[in-house]
Amino acid sequence: xxxxxxxxxxxxxxxxxxxxxxxxxxxxxxxxxxxxxxxxxxxxxxxxxxxxxxxxxxxxxxxxxxxxxxxxxxxxxxxxxxxxxxxxxxxxxxxxxxxxxxxxxxxxxxxxxxxxxxxxxxxxxxxxxxxxxxxxxxxxxxxxxxxxxxxxxxxxxxxxxxxxxxxxxxxxxxxxxxxxxxxxxxxxxxxxxxxxxxxxxxxxxxxxxxxxxxxxxxxxxxxxxxxxxxxxxxxxxx
Length: 238
Description:
Helix content is 21%, strand content 26%. It has helices at residues 15-28, 32-39, 45-51, 59-68, 73-78, 232-236; strands at 107-114, 122-123, 130-132, 144-150, 163-167, 177-182, 191-200, 204-210, 213-219, 223-229. Strands 1, 2, 3, 4, 5, 6, 7, 8, 9 and 10 form a ten-stranded mixed β-sheet that branches. Helix 2 packs across helix 4 (59-68). The protein is globular, with a radius of gyration of 19 Å. The N and C termini lie far apart (38 Å).
């Protein structure tokens, strides 16, 4: 049974996101509505961002819009010039080649993981919705993946829209931030959410939330897997 309270409000949208969307709209000569229709999302999505009716984009919506804008979700979020599609007037020959290790954009993004439990849990996609660069310590690692965070219940450690990196083969320890994957029924889709692991018992698992502070008790028989969220030290081999 959950002891959690409602998650905090989603923060105001970063203006850089809308600026990057506008950059791609201009490059592709697309209107707001045309881009949304191309992405297969609500046609008012970009308009609502401009008006402040929408404060952010969920991971799946962000990925769909990025594909329609012929770029990646990570570029829209981070504005990493090396991740942008070469859809501008810059010729590949004019760009200095980066180190080959930096070109390894093969780490799958399996959708989103909810920042709250019971309210807003998210289904993990069975197929990647995007690919991102591998941090140095994950090069060649087969059981690594990434997810976008939805919600604010783990803020400020993991905020709405953040991209987290996970290893399915790393044993989670008490005190770790983890992605919990639930299987509520044999024929039901699996759901995921991010939390801090507080206790691993024989019959129950207790996890914690930060914003607001709360504890959640889970029936261990319904927990399909617990995957450790990697720290910066994990990602860069410190």
